[in-house]
Amino acid sequence: MTEILPSWRPGATRDALLTFLEKAATVPVVDRVAYFDNDGTLWCERPTYVQFDFFVDALRQRVGQDPAVAERAEFAALLGGDPTAIEALGLPRIAGALAGLFEGQTPQEFAGAVREFMARAEHRTLGRPLRTLLYRPMLELIEELRRLDFTVGIVTGGGAEFLRAVSQDLYAVPPELVVGSQIGYRLTTDASGAPELRRTAALDGVVNEGAAKVSHIQSELGRRPLLAAGNSGGDREMLEWAAAGPGGLALLVDHDDADREFAYRSMGVTVDEAEAITVVAERQGWTVSSMARDWTVVFGAHD
Amino acid sequence: MTEILPSWRPGATRDALLTFLEKAATVPVVDRVAYFDNDGTLWCERPTYVQFDFFVDALRQRVGQDPAVAERAEFAALLGGDPTAIEALGLPRIAGALAGLFEGQTPQEFAGAVREFMARAEHRTLGRPLRTLLYRPMLELIEELRRLDFTVGIVTGGGAEFLRAVSQDLYAVPPELVVGSQIGYRLTTDASGAPELRRTAALDGVVNEGAAKVSHIQSELGRRPLLAAGNSGGDREMLEWAAAGPGGLALLVDHDDADREFAYRSMGVTVDEAEAITVVAERQGWTVSSMARDWTVVFGAHD
User: Fold this and answer.
1) Residues A105-142 pLDDT 10s
2) Most-buried pick from A100, B61, B205, B220 (CB within 10 A)?
3) Interface predicted TM-score (ipTM) of this complex, two decimals
4) By a Cβ cutoff of 8 Å, what residues of chain A touch chain B?
5) Could you give all domains of chain A from N- to C-terminal order, each with its CATH number?
6) Going by C-beta distance under 8 Å and a sequence separation of 6 or more, which residues neighbour residue A37?
7) Distance from CA of B149 to the nearest CA of A (A)
């Protein structure tokens, strides 16, 4: 028999996962549902979010075509890499300006741009293609869940369309099982009069973080998770919701491995700004996966 | 070889479906996506919507517990079956009052009530269980699509949660592949402090009809349909969108069979109020499935 979860070191965390999987095999298939956060849970999110890198790359291309674009305050701050100017403007305003770069694109055009970027983009410091910086142990967990006929989805604070463009290739997760922050669309017609969707520059609804992850799971996916995995304060409510269900498991990835990845602690974004999510995890009895302690490899063949 | 689509009579409509299926087999699997409207496309919607019957049934139960409920104007009009009073109040106001009956329920409680109803409810005039009034030829089409690895979803103007409660059992469509009008939720905590979702009485966003079906497909499912099927003006934009794509097929169910089901024409709800959807279909060259002409059986074993 091939050993399951081979990249997880023997110990309490691996045991907790094995116990969960064993019990899950007795749960009705309809309730075998697992949702994963993406940034920092399935792929590397430091020093910058992958989607942020994509946005900045698109901005640089735009500036190459039209240098005047660089003069806009939000873009000047970004391109100058000036943390003070960025903080003064605020991330929501900068994100809004970046989203505006894609206004008027069709979903196909946007997905094509994401795929083109992900096919070539390198990590800023690790010197490897971004698309290879997936956590091998988490992929093994997904594989085991699927072996048990789990429905596996991704619930990200990032853009739904951004992740959907690559979720099938990277994770074998189809677009309908990706929930994220959602850009608005307008229905228009092309030159021949055929209907066509075009991106707006505004979000449709709220950012998919915190409590919104829970209500969006219900409204878009329709089932409560038996397992939820995350790594940040924005995942807290989703993890609490999974843990509170019968047989539910909340899995928190703790980034404590400066040698192989990054060491950082996420603070709460919604409930208690001052409390690290690892402290919440301990108090609530979640399963914590320490990168340094529990993972024999981080990125698999690419470590 | 077993004949495919056995309940479809030989003719232009069946030929169009066979040609579509043959071509679809050469399309990348990721693009093999089919979405079906539900009311009047997969199951019988006359003389009243199934969800309306469920609402009225729930109202009667509520009145049984608390007769004063019947005095509310919207409920009095409904229970009295007075078309003039119903029209004067307007369906949105009445639907809002009915949705209020379930305010505060958890998604599990609501789904349980739907399943309990669907397990016992009979059609008003056909004398058969509502759950058996599915169109056999459409189920055969779904079966063929699945044989070709299509992703099959349902896009309904009715409540998403209502249909999701039975979509797996009736159609083998999981909840994440059902898009409908969406009730709002609030995240609260139960007596033990665990997180819990509760229904509000208000819709989250707009009713899933017309152009909204297209933008909701994009935002919730993330892929354009290669095949879309509908029967009413509220399906027009979705059908136009499918038909406009490369190799796309728009299939319209024409209710022209008063003997076996009902004969009625749906008028447009969004673009042209005065035009029957069958006229739009003819002008746009959609594939029209006449119940009387194209289907050897309507409800299968239950005809």
Assistant:
1) 999 999 999 999 999 999 999 999 999 999 999 999 99
2) B220
3) 0.94
4) 30, 107, 151, 153, 160-161, 164, 168, 174-178, 182, 184-187, 194-197, 204-205, 211, 214-215, 218-224, 237, 240-241, 244
5) 12-47+130-302 (3.40.50.1000), 50-120 (no CATH)
6) A154, A155, A156, A157, A229, A230, A231, A232, A234, A235, A238
7) 13
